[in-house]
Amino acid sequence: MVFDHGGQVVASSQLEHRQLTPQPGWVEHDALEIWDNARSVIGAALAAADLTHRDLAAVGITNQRETAVVWSRVTGDPVCPAIVWQDTRSQGLVDRLAADGGVSRFAEATGLPLATYFSATKIAWILDNVPGARACAEAGELLFGTIDSWLVWNLTGGVNGGIHVTDVTNASRTLLMSLETLDWNAELLEAFGVPRAMLPRICSSSEVYGVASSRSLLDGVPIAGILGDQQAATFGQTAFDAGDTKSTYGTGNFLLVSTGERIVRSSHGLITTVGFKLGGSPARYALEGSVAVTGSLVQWLRDNLGAITAARDIELLAGTVPDNGGVYIVPAFSGLYAPYWRPDARGAVLGLTHYANKGHLARAVLEATAFQTADVLEAACADLGTTASGLRVDGGMTANSLLMQFQADLLGVDVVRPRVPETTSLGAAYAAGLAVGFWSSLDELRGLWSEGARWSPAMARDEAARLMGEWHKAVTKTFGWVE
Length: 483
Fold this sequence. Notes:
three-stranded mixed β-sheet, alpha+beta, 16 helices
């Protein structure tokens, strides 16, 4: 995506890459396909606006945060497919590490529970299961990175001098970085068996890391911003200050509440993460509620059940019925993330009767997203001792007005979408632009935000409470499915 000084979209291009699921619980991506697609969309976006690299002030990158790539610094080839954040193959390692200290064993240092979600167990799995990988890593021949590191390394030359970096937001999702020092933690590296030599240098979210090489159409353009996708969306929403809240509706749902320069430890099932760091300024932190399956549940309804032909069709189908007919779907495909953290849970459809039809199922799919978001917002409010006054939203699912209205009804507060809904890309652009002086300050960015749509609650509070109560009852039925 190309943005102008007013934060408006000049041009964009996108390509979908394959979702590879070779075994139950395994979710993979082809990192080379992602690199190829990145080059293609760069060219297409520039061509759409009749631009060249000379017209660009800087490049920012945003990415899936926990997806792990391990590749050869000699050949540039990944040693295996990238292991995606939803992948659960490393649960055995999580269980072994949790046997001594529980799932909160490393939470004081990292802000994270022990879970397959984060990168460290994925790296360990690769080193222990790909033939020769550990020996090569210990010899300094392999590199690890989340998708941002993989793209920056390739954009800046690859095997010919590629820069191996990440930013604090992505590093904070590995289970290997200390929240306080913002550096790799030797104790954690030893616990997971990860050689420090394969890790990228941790940088701020907004600085010039290097310039793009001739391997792409960005030759000579400064690469100056990196933010993990949810932090980027928060930044694009200009939610910079303590208490600012946003929720992104994508493959999963992610609610972030900024806590400023203060590290807040959650006692209600959320995780503590780095929100952003601008150059040499102090890091800003956030509480996050991570929900694994929301938009991907719509894909499941489309691809696995064939109930709809396109994702956008779900709103029309759900609108054929006035309510869910008593049907609830708990999409614990990879267990449940925040605020439950139950890897033993699995997905379930509950409350079925002869009355239920496709419309009720479609409505239950959408409502599952809203229920899960309400759960994590309630947890955030409990941690901070506050009540929600509203919710800023972004992401593809916010185009669904039925879902957004139901979300406002459940929460009892206004739900607001910005005029530029692609806040994830916008946040990465903002971070890069600040680093090179394209924008001057956070105040200037705040002035660019404007409201695009608003949904106000219309449901009686006792009815919202009844629905949440039935949802919580449904959730408990999924616990303990996996021994």
